[in-house]
Amino acid sequence: MLAIYKKELRSYFTSMIGWVFIAFMLVLVGLYFMVYNLLNGYTNFSYVFQGVQMFFVFLLVPVLTMRIVAEENRQKTDQLLYTAPVSISKIIMGKYLALITLFGLAMLVVCTYPLILSGLVKGAATGTESVDFAIAYGSALGFFLLGSAYIAIGLFISSLTESQVIAAVASGVIMIFTYLMSSLASLLPSGHAFSFWFLAVLVAALAFGLHMWIHNGWMAALIGLIAEIALTVTFILNTEAFDGILRKSLEAVSIIERYDNFTLGIFDVSALIYYLSVCFLFVFITIQRIRKKRWS
């Protein structure tokens, strides 16, 4: 894994990808830092991350992750992965950790900004307001965890196609949905009937996706049927529980919502576990996807 990690990390800096990513990241952060903190005089550094968030999710992550596995598929060098003495798990982990390291290097530079802002505030001596480092570095930690989760999602999407363009567009669309998940949830009807039929259709879609994944129609149909029966029985026994369940569920799994506590200087352990779980889940299913392709 260490050899893969070094190779991938080196490739980012021997090409333009790593430098361009870091440059765009620092330009975006620097722009919002100038507007919020320098021009408008805010000492809350979390505003910078909240401003950068949208561009990071919609643009930087899809562009960064679009080639990580898709390029291997396009050039057919993925065949080397299947016969390499290194396990698939170590290869994917090496690639993922290289991406996280690249993102972390950009974040290390960004973490100097609150210190610069603190020096400017003390030098101005215009009031008693100072930089809250708990909020500044809590926001930085939350943003790093948020970015790591989105990078894991982008890694998985890249493994599904040979086209970097398709990987980037698909990542952008999916990440837009996750970014706007809470807003979309508030637009959904909260009635129990709508919730039931929505979940029923979702179960059917998941069963079909399982069929495409395992190529076993009988198994997928059986699992889907059991899930539909369980859903129907639950609805009959406790209809009221379905009121507003979609909105609550979407808000509970929203990646963006989990970030909010970090902007208040609160170290949210549940959010930490959530982000680490998302990273593990998508890296794991990426590994399983490639293993399945290896034996197919």
Provide structural commentary.
The chain has 296 residues and is mostly helical. 78% of the residues lie in helices and 0% in strands. It is built from 14 helices and no strands. α3 runs parallel beside α8, α3 runs antiparallel to α9 and α6 packs antiparallel against α14.
Q: Can you give the mean pLDDT?
A: 84
Number of helical stretches of at least 4 residues? 14
Question: Main beta sheet, described?
Answer: none
Helix content: over 70%
Element-level helix/strand string: HHHHHHHHHHHHHH
Uncertain ranges? none
Radius of gyration: 22 Å
* N-C termini distance: 24 Å
Query: How many β-strand runs?
Result: 0
Give the structural class. mainly alpha
Shape: flat
Q: Please indicate the percent range of residues in DSSP E strands (runs of 2 or more).
A: under 5%
What is this structure, in a nutshell?
78% of the residues lie in helices and 0% in strands. By secondary structure, it is mostly helical.
Key features?
mainly alpha; flat; 78% helix; 14 helices; 296 residues
